[in-house]
Amino acid sequence: MAASDAADFSEIRRLAHELPAADEDARARAAEQQRGLAKPPGSLGRLEALAGWLAAWQGKHPPTATRPHIALFAGNHGVAAQGVSAYPQSATQAMVRTFIDGGGAINRICGLMDVDLRVYEMALDEPTRDFTREPAMTEDEAARAMAYGMMAVDGEMDLMALGEMGIANTTAAAALSAAVFGGPARDWVGPGSGLDEAGVAHKAEVVATALRLHADGFTDGLEILRRVGGLELAAVAGAVLACRLARVPVVLDGYAATAAAATLTTLAPGMLDHCVVAHVSAEPGHRRLLDALGMRALQDLDMRLGEATGAALAIPLIQSACACHTGMTTLDAAGVTPLS
Ligand SMILES: Cc1cc2ncn([C@H]3O[C@H](COP(=O)(O)O)[C@@H](O)[C@H]3O)c2cc1C
Ligand SMILES: O=C(O)c1cccnc1
């Protein structure tokens, strides 16, 4: 899909109404196969459901997880000027350089497995506008950022993990979550990369100011994303949409990535059914957001880093689900039958 195909909101809204549904036949075949494997039924717990989920959203049985891909989008935020992060905006660029040099946590995790990690730097010297004063992006900027995220997706990959890097983006995540699901700003903010209590209270004020300013403009998820999101968050949302269209199941990272994806839920029912959330972040808003979305994370590791680290850790879990599903012997072949 070319960026120009989706570079305005009306086209993106149209795409959201043409989403492929799950392949229930593939899911049923997966469930059938699970029943015969050499283990007590249900004993692999959520790994069994993961195999069915992969089959349903890839539209094939058996499912595969041999070509996983990680897209890490980086962008800068004008709202950083409000003093909402423990780190300066320049840390975004410094960390992108670190990822390219191979020294980030995400690089070390990826080094343990065969996964394609790509870092997408989005005009770091042109931050979004401060959304306590005006919308972070114009429609054109937001739609282009979404289209950029869409271009990270192709039908060759069989699993896509999505993450972000952008100083102040947990402030944007809080504003996005509050705009989509309601509730006071203080319910959605947390320390992010390391604010103290006074810092978190100030961050809540900043988010509350933005929510008041934009309240009348929150007409749907795309307007929410444009007003209080960010470039890398719009790219995550675009990639989620493109993965659905390309039949690539998605692993979302932590709070920021999930909040970006959550904006799409206003566009069509079941919008995130092809996604799993890799881990529940220690950033407190993430748990609240998962409850609001009705999603349960795969892991709870007290991590609060972002940069796709949680999503990367979920890849071997999903590969394990697939390996058991496709490679185990059957109860019959093992000569095992239950007593009754
Ligand atoms: C050195 C460093 C590495 C990071 N890797 C991810 N993040 C994470 O922290 C940022 C969000 O936190 P806040 O909203 O408090 O700025 C994002 O860039 C996120 O990916 C990092 C942050 C820092 C400082
Ligand atoms: O969960 C996240 O996405 C997160 C948490 C803290 C800092 N940056 C990102």
From TrEMBL:
Pathway: Nucleoside biosynthesis; alpha-ribazole biosynthesis; alpha-ribazole from 5,6-dimethylbenzimidazole: step 1/2. The active site is at E307 (proton acceptor). Keywords: Cobalamin biosynthesis, Glycosyltransferase, Transferase. SUPFAM superfamilies: Nicotinate mononucleotide:5,6-dimethylbenzimidazole phosphoribosyltransferase (CobT). One of its GO terms (biological process) is cobalamin biosynthetic process. Belongs to the CobT family. PANTHER family: NICOTINATE-NUCLEOTIDE--DIMETHYLBENZIMIDAZOLE PHOSPHORIBOSYLTRANSFERASE. The keyword Transferase applies. GO terms for molecular function: nicotinate-nucleotide-dimethylbenzimidazole phosphoribosyltransferase activity. The keyword NADP does not apply. Its EC number is 2.4.2.21. This is Nicotinate-nucleotide--dimethylbenzimidazole phosphoribosyltransferase.
